[in-house]
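FAQ

Q: What does a record look like?
A: Structure on top, sequence underneath. For example:
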């Protein structure tokens, strides 16, 4: 399946002989896998914290609230923060791979350094594509952070929220 709406944004941002569809697939895969891992991590941490709010009453034969407060949301926000750090690391690796691609075929680091605007063109290729993806990753992290807050706020019993 071709992702024309994403490839169009990458058209002029990558070096001329870079495979744009493969790059979009890799960026999408990293985003989906990172987002899923972050969501699972949040759900495990939140589920554990929420289950600690309850105790089992043998006389009532059900779970009852202990009266404790759940951890503040800032403790759970790290799930999205670490995801952003992961994306930054992956984009640095991608920038290194783009830099190394200038040593292949007819493109060379030496030639790019000799051309009048060669260094600026090469810097553009190294920065624009990863920054394009970084903006999309930041939007994903912001959306996940908002979703995590909504789950934390509305799935926690009102009496257990910290004031």
């Amino acid at each position: 399946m071709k992702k024309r709406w994403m490839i169009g944004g990458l058209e002029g941002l990558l070096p001329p002989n870079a495979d744009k569809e493969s790059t979009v697939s890799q960026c999408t895969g990293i985003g989906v896998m990172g987002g899923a891992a972050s969501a699972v991590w949040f759900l495990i941490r939140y589920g554990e914290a929420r289950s600690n709010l309850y105790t089992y009453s043998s006389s009532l034969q059900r779970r009852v609230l202990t009266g404790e407060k759940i951890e503040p949301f800032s403790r759970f926000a790290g799930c999205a923060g670490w995801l952003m750090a992961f994306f930054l690391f992956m984009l640095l690796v991608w920038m290194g791979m783009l830099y190394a691609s200038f040593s292949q075929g007819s493109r060379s680091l030496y030639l790019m350094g000799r051309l009048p605007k060669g260094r600026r063109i090469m810097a553009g290729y190294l920065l624009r594509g990863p920054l394009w993806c970084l903006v999309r990753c930041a939007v994903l992290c912001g959306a996940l952070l908002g979703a995590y807050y909504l789950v934390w706020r509305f799935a926690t019993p009102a009496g257990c929220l910290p004031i």
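Q: Is there anything notable about this one?
A: The first helix runs from residue 4 to 10.
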